[in-house]
Amino acid sequence: MFNKVKLFSHIIKSTQNWFSVTLGHPSGNTEFKTRFRNGREEKIIIHFAPNKIISDAKRVYRKHGLIYTINAVRRNVWAVCTRFFRSIRCFFWPGRFKLNDIYFEYSCHPDIWRNERRVEVPIALAVVKEAQIKGLNILEVGNVLWRYGGSGYDVLDKYEVQKGIINEDIVSYIPKKKYDIIISVSTFEHVGWDENEYGGKSSNGQGKLLLGIDNLIKNCLVDRGEIFFTVPIGYNPQLNLYIETNKLNTYSCRFLLRKSFNRWCEASWDEVKNVKFNFPFPFANAILIGRIKKQETN
User: Fold this and answer.
1) What is the spatial distance between Cα 155 and Cα 238, in angstroms, rounded to a whole number?
2) What's the topology of domain 96-293?
């Protein structure tokens, strides 16, 4: 049935963050989010009052110059148009994909229509929903799902500074309570690999991911608790090796392969192991959906 309310909410979300130019400091009614890129801190507008557009554009001009300001406006006006039409397109033709004989709808969120989160998010949200129905304690590693409706659980993220987020490293984090399930979406591939891009120290700590997963299992999970995670294939070559040799100790591995720009199908490891990241389609062209279980201790 045609849902006008849902369509309208998608249109509002698609235009809400349109003027996302990088500024040095907040002012007025503008709400900012801090992120790290190439080792430096940036502040990005995430909610913008319309009457502040001109004044903020002037401030950007004074700080960065005319060319930067023109390019910023051009990029973000284009983003308004594309997000608007993506929202309408995703609403009317979301489509479905199958994983382990279960059908999921592709995510309709306008920010992820062309990357792997289009399939990762609906799978992860289904896991969250099932765990919450059962009353399980949930920890998310990497602050991802809140953007797409996830809430009501603890979040561990070393670099994303927001209220309510635990800013600790997965290698050393020891919680006061243990969790029944830990969920991570497109986060493990960054651990020890390219953390400097998020404000961390040097990259390529080859064994850090294994140490982090070991700490999550030993200190964060209850007996017979699980880690559910998704990672892109081909982004981190060391992670590919871990997958092939099962150093992650997964008891379940499922793979999705990108067949076209917006179509994903279940595949085997042999079909995805040589898939490249960012080719032939933008971002991931194959992903792993894995599960790790903590054995019962005596």
Assistant:
1) 26
2) Rossmann fold (3.40.50)
State how far the Cα of 154 lies from the Cα of 15, in Å rounded to an integer: 29
For the chain, residues classed under CATH 3.40.50 are 96-293
Q: Structure pTM?
A: 0.70
Pairwise CA distance, residues 280 & 18, whole Å: 28
Type and span of the H or E element at 64: helix 53-64
Per 3-state DSSP, the chain is made up of helix, strand and coil in percentages (nearest 5) of 35, 25, 40
In angstroms, the CA 25 to CA 282 distance is: 32
Name the DSSP letter for residue 279.
S
CA distance 137 to 221: 10
Between CA 120 and CA 145 the distance in angstroms is: 10
CB 155 within 8 A of CB 201: no
Q: Between the CA of residue 97 and those of 14, 28, 33, 94, 102, what are the distances in Å? A: 24, 44, 33, 10, 8
Q: How far is CA 36 from CA 119, 160, 163, 198, 236, in A?
A: 25, 9, 17, 5, 20
Task: pLDDT tens for the chain, 298 residues: list them.
Answer: 444 454 445 444 444 443 333 333 334 444 444 444 444 444 444 444 455 667 777 787 888 888 888 887 777 777 667 666 666 665 566 688 999 999 998 887 777 878 999 999 999 999 999 999 999 999 999 999 998 989 999 999 999 988 899 999 999 999 999 999 999 999 999 998 887 765 555 455 668 999 999 999 999 999 999 999 999 999 999 999 999 999 999 999 999 999 987 899 999 999 999 999 999 998 999 999 999 999 887 6
Biggest alpha carbon–alpha carbon distance for the chain: 67
Segment holding 228, helix H or strand E? strand 221-232
Question: Which residues share a beta bridge with 35?
Answer: 42
